[in-house]
Amino acid sequence: MNMTTRILFIAIILIISGCSKQQDNKESALSSIQQTTVIKSTSSPTGYEVKFCYQNPDAKRMRIKGEWLFSSLADGTMRTSTNATPYEWQNGYTLWGTKDWPVYEMSKDRTTGIWSITLPLPSGTYKYKYYIDGDQTDVNNLTGAIEASDPANPPYHRDAPLNDLKGEDTYSKVYVPYDSFKQNLSRDSSIEAPAKPEDRGTVSFVEVPSNVLDIPVHMAVYLPKGYDPARAEAYPLLFLLHGGGGTESSWLNNGAANILDNVIAEGKMEPTVVIMPNGSNFSWKRENIVNSIENEILPYATNHYNVSKDVNRRAMAGLSMGGATVMYTLINRPQLFNYYTAMSAPWTKDIILDFSNPILKQKKIFVTVGLYDFVKVEAVLNPESRQAKGGEGSFYSFIFGMNDAGVPFKTQAEEPFGHQWVFWREVLAHISENFLWK
């Protein structure tokens, strides 16, 4: 199934001068669109607009909510933001991590039964969801509304009843291109663009029998373009873990497949098989996760895919709770992988901060966190808290502990992001281009 939004570029060409004629041409072009579409627009402050469409002639009300809230870095701190909507975006603003995403009413075309709204958006990948009906008059009060992803642009998810899906599995996503003139002071997210069809890998969902759990382990598997099960040289293998509340679909529904397609097509990373297990299946009991990886998932991968058995060709990366699981695995099972990447990893009480094992000095380790991430904010606000060096542990305990033990690692300058996907997508692109298999 093709999960990528159809991207259509509509050129608004002014043959006859005059503002009224320009507006007529644009409205005529927009009115013909009947599914979610990205539009190149001369009138948009970003150079692009997205027309979101949902056909439901029986709905009495339709709203849309998405992760489009922005801030000037001049207004950004650990607790403050410009909180600019798409209509208030200015060149230089960045996507800002928050749960208070704007909600908008959509308009209904009585002839087609299609509800729509057009938003100006800068470069990036955006999750969004529709809300049908609901009895409340306040646009932000979604009580009683039926949540729905975009049927013409569905999210990745395993074959499961829709009412069993949650979190990222219920959001559709759309990518908006970069305009080098109108967005020249803002972040270029072109690495997240849908690749050409001939450069795209494939995604499948599998269930791995498990003795560790009472149920099979759910996994998503990404195979790079041109994957050859009979290739003489086995492919390198990356384990990619989501965060708390996520599923095996989380990375996919936040743009990972596009990033992997692009870095591989551009020759920036060797074609790699990527396995994304569902950590939530284990309720984040890390010893169970690692036991399953070692004794169930890795054997399954080597039996079903042409992946290397050489530890030097294996990597593990994860965000948030998945990042903490990476650090747990590094300390307790360093022999399983050679590359370890922890993004925004919180300290948890099951991680004993012992970096004395000499094998750790031979591993390739990458740790990173956003400038405004809560896993470090608490350490700044309360030095005696458990998320601080002076307390039981923290993100800083990982890097300070490795430094004190003489364990080498890589990191990057802390960027102005919080605990959010815009940052983790950037890290995935960075390690793919500069760290893995290097």
Please give a structural write-up.
The protein is built from 7 helices and 18 strands. With 438 residues, it is of the alpha+beta class. The strands form 4 sheets. The protein has a 7-stranded mixed beta sheet with strand order 12-13-15-14-16-17-18, sandwiched between helices. Strands 3, 6, 9, 10 and 11 form a 5-stranded antiparallel beta sheet that branches. Strands 1-2-8-7 form a 4-stranded antiparallel beta sheet, with no helix packed on it. The chain is globular.
Which class best fits the helix and strand makeup?
alpha+beta
How many E-type strands?
A: 18
Alpha carbon gyration radius? 23 Å
Main pleated sheet: 7 strands, mixed
Query: Mean pLDDT, nearest integer?
Result: 88
Order of strands, widest sheet: 12-13-15-14-16-17-18
**Coarse morphology:** globular
Residues in helices, as a percent range: 10-25%
Percentage of residues in strands: 15-25%
Parts with pLDDT < 50 across at least 5 consecutive residues: 1-24
